[in-house]
Design a protein that fits this description.
CATH topology: Nucleotidyltransferase, domain 5
Order of helices and strands: HHHHEHEH
Structural class: mainly alpha
Number of domains: 1
Number of helices: 6
Radius of gyration: 19 Å
């Protein structure tokens, strides 16, 4: 997204509060809390860039559904934690439009992660527990 912000702000000379909030930091490493603040203050450059990213994420999700038919796609990370509710509808709409056959979209839910920073630790614990249980049942 850094390139998209640079292009809009520097090359296209569009107004954004993002550079002011970065206090000299690079556009390549923008924190999600800053993006959330820009979104809440109505920054058009940030809103358009994030909506475009959500559109592409939806296209990718649609391709994933077409190829693998998962029951659930869970979206997480800083931007999803900060702005997931705002972007989820765009992601779902584009996923549905890029799923073939379209009815396979109905078998998949696209959700926001609920575990936050604990997701990796809980996933590792669950994996180890399942593995331990399956090995003890084999004995």
């Amino acid at each position: 997204m850094g390139y998209a912000f640079r292009k809009a702000i520097l090359l296209d000379n569009r107004e954004s509060i993002l550079p002011d909030l970065l206090e000299g930091a690079s556009l390549d490493n923008v924190r999600s809390s800053i993006l959330k603040r820009c979104w809440d203050e109505g920054d058009v450059v940030v809103r358009e860039t994030l909506m475009e990213a959500a559109r592409y994420l939806g296209i990718a999700a649609g391709n994933l559904i077409t190829m693998l038919a998962p029951h659930t796609i869970v979206l997480g990370g800083g931007v999803c934690d900060a702005l997931g509710e705002e972007l989820l509808e765009v992601i779902q709409k584009n996923a549905k439009a890029h799923t073939f056959p379209h009815r396979s979209f109905e078998d998949t839910s696209i959700e926001l992660a609920q575990l936050g920073d604990d997701a990796v630790a809980l996933g590792a614990f669950e994996f180890a527990r399942d593995r331990f249980q399956s090995e003890s049942q084999e004995d």
